[in-house]
Amino acid sequence: MGTLPSDTTYRELAAGKLAKLVGSERAPALVASVCARASLRSLDSPDDLLRFADALGEEGGFVGALGALLRVRAILDGATAAPGGTDDKEPPTNRTGP
Prior knowledge:
0% strand
């Protein structure tokens, strides 16, 4: 499983990657906006990163693609919450026909 260096937080990871993508001036505001939309007070755990990544993915474009990459990172680091912050949802069924 992937792990963060001991001196790096998930917020720093996300902000750093966003800064490379959208610039260091825009990244902090985007992190704050996405955290607010995902109802996150912190980005301290893989589950937090998963919720952040799902909300970031809604941005679309390259920023949305970064959300998908951060989602993979969260899962590799042990995220267990399903999208929306709950883990008790049934997976969708693949029905064919009427």
